[in-house]
Amino acid sequence: MDIYVTRPSIPDYDEYCGMIKTIFDKKLLTNRGPLHEQLLEVLKDRFKVDNLELCVNGHIGLELAIEALGLRNCGGEVITTPYTFISTTNAIVRNGLTPVFCDIKESDMTIDEDKIEALITDKTVAILPVHVYGNPCNTVKIQEIADRHNLKVIYDAAHAFDVSLNDTNILNYGDASMVSFHATKGFNTIEGGAVSFKDPEVASKFRCLTNFGITGLETADCIGSNGKMDEFRAAMGLCNIKRIDAETEKRKHVVELYRKRLSEHKDITLSGRIENSTENYIYFPVIFSTYELRDKVYKTLRDNHIIARKYFYPAVNDFEAYKEIGNHDTAIATHISKSVLTLPLYSGLELDTVNKICDIVLGVLE
Ligand code: T4K
């Protein structure tokens, strides 16, 4: 049987059926039903954020957050990282904005805050960094730069569910922060996500955009989209939130074993840890000393039915789709993307299997 890079955490079948019984009883399937509202309150309390909105998936959340901040089709440039899932950049471009790619730091693979300012022009309107693998960006320096140049800061926090920085949930940083609840994330609502906003008026604009722009039975304030989370997804979230701490603890044990087995090898570099931040253990990226070794490990694992993934290869600006606009010097991002492999990591992954994966990896490096 294949071992995948991740497996979703799901509740017992009967528990989920119990949760969705009320949907069948009330026939309220979507459009901010009671389960949506319940999940929203639970998450607001968990994240300690004032202005939180749920959405049907993380990507649409990011896209509509950019629009809610008034940036859509403003002709501006957005400084962002190429070392991410393509969704991040697509959200910028699909808003009619131009991504300007800033290189990353080799230590934690987040945007290099010291390289941002040199990329600012009179067209720059925002910075859109990614807390990649749940590693928090340097939020303090990024905010200082944004304040100096009057820019918005929008965080792609897709990977950062439950991550805290300086005892504050990561979703409290920036003008907006999107977190993903996709099936492959630590906490899932099947598909889903949430966006937190600094300004309650922007949050209410976002809410309106997720509902076609409709504000009342006979009123529409803007030309919106449809980004609402339905009741079946909210039900999955309400089941999963009860188990999230236990699930994270199990993933932590997997990560600890990987670190114990792999951290000392000369051909392996693991992601650096960020001071004063917590971890959510959703990805385990390994950087190999050469591209050939990465590819050889990837293939050997596959030959043994271990489906590790090259998250994130290629760097976004190396995709064919971004050929025209991706021509910035992001040598470190390209280098890391060719050297990285994310190893299987999920709560149900047996420690024996982790040992087997490590044996295979170390065997290739011998
Ligand atoms: N920004 C960033 C930085 C992101 O990483 C993402 C999503 C987004 C924005 C957008 O957020 P969402 O709109 O997705 O909420 C996956 C996920 O689909 C995607 O959510 C995630 N990032 C990205 C990094 O990974 P794929 O195409 O690699 O997924 P897939 O289908 O190959 O799944 C990986 C493995 O997980 C499979 O081999 C098996 C396992 N799996 C997957 C699913 C969907 C299961 O066991 N069950 C499942 O239901 O994109």
Q: Could you please describe the fold and organization of this structure?
A:
The chain is built from ten helices and 16 strands. With 366 residues, the protein is of the alpha/beta class. It has helices at residues 13-26, 34-47, 58-68, 86-93, 139-149, 200-209, 231-262, 291-303, 331-339, 351-365, and strands spanning 3-4, 52-55, 77-80, 98-101, 124-128, 152-156, 164-165, 168-169, 176-180, 193-197, 214-216, 219-220, 268-270, 285-288, 306-307, 340-342. The strands form five sheets. It has a seven-stranded mixed β-sheet with strand order 2-10-9-6-5-3-4, sandwiched between helices. A three-stranded antiparallel β-sheet has the order 13-14-16. The longest helix has 32 residues, at 231-262. The two termini are 26 Å apart. A hairpin with a 2-residue loop joins strand 7 and strand 8. The site of ligand T4K has 23 residues, from helix 3 and helix 4.
